[in-house]
Amino acid sequence: MRNDTATASAVLALAGGPANVRHVTHCLTRLRLTLADPAAVDEASLRALPGVLGVIGAGTPSLQVVLGPGVVDTVTAEVERRLAAGAGAEEAAGARVEKRGNGSEPTPRKGPLAAALRRIANVFVPLIPALIGCGILAGVNGLLTNAGWLPGLTPALAAIASGFMALIAVFVGYQTAKEFGGTPILGGAVAAVIVYPGVAKVTAFGVHLSPGQGGVLGALAAALLATRIEKWCRGRLPGALDVLFTPTVTVLVAGLATLYGLMYAAGAVATAIGTGANWLLTTTGPFAGLILGGLFLPLVMLGLHQALIPIHTTLIEQQGYTVLLPLLAMAGAGQVGGALAVYVRLRHDTTLRTTIRSALPAGLLGVGEPLIYGVSLPLGRPFITACVGGAAGGGFVGFFAMLGEKVGATAIGPSGWALFPLLTGNQGPAAAIAIYAGGLLTAYAVGFAATLAFGFRRGTTRGTTSPVTDRTPAGST
To answer: Does domain 4-109 have CATH number 3.40.50.2000?
Structure first.
């Protein structure tokens, strides 16, 4: 039985204790800890901890512990609770850490682009559970409607599935203000202007606005502007006036700017994104699939994949699904195929084979970090050949998109087999599921074959080289 409380306690202890943790957050699969002293982490014990699928960034101030979907939420909540409960002890111990480090606390080093993308991701990641839940319900409702089953229930399911998407701009505005240091409810209030039906009476640039115009991009921009205005006001108004005038000025100025500029501009950008995605797949489908499927994992390692989150959300808001996610999901399938080839080739390396066996179920469900960081990336060549498998799977899905058979996902987050309940397309869910399954099989097969043929240096014999301990020869070219 899963014990997330015990996992949280062990992770916190092996990360150097509460005094060593400066900040905690999480994404869909990873617990992210900002550390005062990276050297205090017991990496080996942390990797061996039951429930931990992988460890990324050991030895740096930014430690990421891969726990998987669902588990990461409860473990993060328990870690936060323990940190709050031991705040006094943490403060005292933190002073000792700083003293030991000659007064300079290490901080994560990130470029401005990576930092900006991380903050934008922090806006959208908390929305993913609702996107998944509503996306699955939308798919179920579509199946029931097409089959003519339960006609009394389908209107209710449609309302439940569509309600969140109708107001997603408000949630984006709330999260944006929260992330960038403003008052969350003011960010939500300004973003609510975008979805208010009365905006149809407003004329901007000679045309009437449409409710929802600009979508999540407009909400993001509106809340960012509101946060800047709020901070400017709070630095200039005394306390008595601040309570009255700061919220008023923030909502008024940011609201007018949203109506008479941001909605129009964001709407144009959102339309261009939808048009561009459709053109890309219908015109250069296989080529686009090859590029997206083959390069996605390197983008993830550089943190550049976070720029795609607003694009996915915009496409879901516009078209009901994102056509990019099924292509990108092929990257993880290539890693599964590559890992299977390593399992077959190094059949006497019991340590590595145990790692692959434990990581494969997670990889099949779209959690690829254990295979990437525990198997293919340390080897070098298998990571590249696995990316070739992902490119082949992406090319397969892209080829059908060029033929007019689009495959889309109604939510972001899951991939691998976990994406099946969220699949749909312009020809319905059945066709989308069949094409996506074909893409997975292609990525598995090509990743396996490419790794078996080119993933090992010449002279490597079965059972004589451990790719985990002998990384230089295996990764050499």
So the answer is: no
